[in-house]
Write a structure and sequence with these properties.
Layout lengths: L1 H17 L2 E6 L8 E3 L11 E2 L8 E4 L2 E9 L2 E7 L12 E18 L3 E9 L2 E10 L6 E16 L6 E7 L8 H21 L1
Antiparallel strand pairs: 1-10, 2-11, 3-5, 4-7, 5-6, 6-11, 7-10, 7-11, 8-9, 8-10
Helix pairs in contact: 1-2
């Protein structure tokens, strides 16, 4: 009985890995995000470096991105983040991370580039848990991210040091710590052990 309960708890945790799905070249990203950051929530100066300005919404950017008003691309409109400055005053950033203040199971964002290859990595505690590479252009299929896996960081890297524009960051469910199924399994196992001790006392 105990082995069965522990197995169920283990399967619940393992299912988070087996259900992992990269979101690549999607037209809409998450089906039902809990929140979407449009970067209109806090209006900054043009070309301002963006790091923790949106931390109250659950995300920090590192090393930094830049604040910019952009239009003319699908799912990209109004205030956005870029890896370059319009004025050329700051260094371009060809690898950056979205660091979430709580572990997530789902997150996606709209991003356009010049038809070049980009790498997307989901990390948890600094360890890569899922990754994919794809071409990123200016089509309407411009949402990228991860779903069905626990992570607290998405790292994005340009394979050829290209430019990009990012908008509409969708955030799904935060991960309960620890998962409720694991707690249930451990609780039931403890109950069975306690009852057996009483029975044989």
């Amino acid at each position: 009985m105990i082995k069965k309960i522990i197995a169920v708890a283990g399967l619940a945790m393992f299912s988070q890995i087996t259900n992992a799905t990269p979101i690549s070249n999607s037209a809409s990203g998450l089906a039902s995000p809990l929140s979407t950051i449009t970067f209109n929530e806090h209006v900054l100066a043009a070309d301002a470096a963006v790091t923790n300005e949106y931390s109250d919404l659950g995300v920090i950017f590192s090393p930094n991105l830049y604040y910019s008003a952009q239009t003319g691309f699908p799912n990209i409109d109004g205030n956005t983040l870029t890896n370059f400055t319009d004025s050329g005053s700051g260094p371009s950033v060809f690898q950056f991370s979205l660091n979430f203040l709580a572990s997530q199971t789902d997150a996606a964002f709209a991003m356009v580039s010049n038809g070049s290859s980009w790498d997307f990595e989901a990390l948890l505690g600094g360890a890569v848990v899922e990754t994919f590479s794809t071409l990123v252009d200016t089509s309407a299929l411009d949402f990228f991210g991860f779903t069905g896996i626990s992570f607290d960081e998405i790292r994005v890297t340009s394979s050829v040091e290209d430019f990009m524009i990012l908008d509409n960051l969708q955030i799904g469910n935060a991960v309960p710590e620890p998962t409720s199924m694991a707690l249930l399994g451990l609780g039931l196992a403890a109950l069975v052990v306690a009852r057996r001790r009483v029975k044989w006392a």
